[in-house]
Design brief:
The structure is a homodimer.
Chain A (H helix, E strand, L loop, with lengths): L4 E7 L1 H4 L7 H12 L2 E8 L3 H14 L2 E5 L10 H9 L3 E3 L1 H14 L5 H4 L3 E3 L3 E3 L8 E4 L2 E4 L3 H11 L10 E7 L3 H14 L4 E9 L2 E10 L2 H14 L3
Parallel strand pairs in A: 1-2, 1-3, 3-8
Antiparallel strand pairs in A: 4-5, 6-7, 7-8, 9-11, 10-11
Amino acid sequence: MPNPSAAMLVIGDEILSGRTRDANMHYLAGQLTERGIDLKEVRVVSDDPDAIVAAAKALSQGYDHVFTSGGIGPTHDDITADCIAAAFGAAIDVRDDARALLQAHYDRSGQELNAARLRMARIPDGAKLIDNPVSTAPGFSLGNVHVMAGVPSVFQAMVASILPTLTGGAPLLSRTLRLVRGEGDIAGPLGQFASDYPMLSVGSYPFQKDGVYGSNIVVRGSDVHELEQAMAALAAIFDV
Amino acid sequence: MPNPSAAMLVIGDEILSGRTRDANMHYLAGQLTERGIDLKEVRVVSDDPDAIVAAAKALSQGYDHVFTSGGIGPTHDDITADCIAAAFGAAIDVRDDARALLQAHYDRSGQELNAARLRMARIPDGAKLIDNPVSTAPGFSLGNVHVMAGVPSVFQAMVASILPTLTGGAPLLSRTLRLVRGEGDIAGPLGQFASDYPMLSVGSYPFQKDGVYGSNIVVRGSDVHELEQAMAALAAIFDV
């Protein structure tokens, strides 16, 4: 059985304007790979309701899981929860369970649960809350879409909350052979090798460092024995 | 007249598996913002022909420009050029102008222009070459899609080759006000401010550092006077 598939939807003008460098994609990619869930696509869209709704619908229909980051805080530009509700045709309002979490949190810190903060308790009907041990305001899962915060520490905590609840497949393993030869020199035999091991994924990633051209050959698969055998064959091909 | 719109298509299993952290998105975003071209969407897809063709078609139809990175080297997993040709229904083969560039390059370095390297001269009919001052093998523009390498140094050189040939709009300027107050405290008046300046984009980006919660308020627009006036009003609202 193939591994479950996943997509990520990053919401944020700050990424698209170049102001902020996204950190969540790389983190989620590594976590999903370890869990045996194959990340197949990432989309980054701006803080535009139509764009968010359209992307959420397309990715929800195309993949087993969708993970979103960004746009669930208390300010006017935090529109993700409402957009995901719209994508599923679900009603959304302040929900008692989320409000209770926030009320307890702000009572402890002596702050007021004002109208802005209460926006973070807007949860679509039928959604399941995602625990946020960092700053309390929860994420949620609606259908196969898991809605999480954009602040990296909170995003990572939410990923840690949700991932153990999802069924993974066989973790994808990878091995790398570093060759100090340009891609043009190795492409022929490498292509033959890739054909010989159709169950493995074979990628070539060129590098250039201190004037030296080389290639990292990355071989991926979920069967450790097949992988080790292939790496031995690869080393023999390139005489290293 | 609104600024031209753009999308980016990142091609690469290595990003989606978490092995490599993409660097090109952040670079392109900053360059386009300076040039007055609005980056509206980014998609990252795997080394899968159907996925690449579908994304290229959708983005090409949806935006004024599409910039791709990755998958134009000499190895078996470099399939971007063929996929972009397929997306436009264009024929593709080794083209004389690209072959001549490569032949001269490898003659200089005393290397053989073998079958693998010749793959880098596969250019769709009707495409215009993009200069690669780093490692010679060219990118190309076909229709409104600009196809570039994934290696960051080469990607950046190709961006420098292509951007001056594109018509930009008014550069998007941004100003940031750093507030050492949580988003929940400022969201009310900030939302009102955003409504008062509909021509400006107002974003709030929370941070947490050394136990201090704060927010960076980023205001964007292309009219410097309007922007400065708004920032003065914003400082007055928050008494800083």
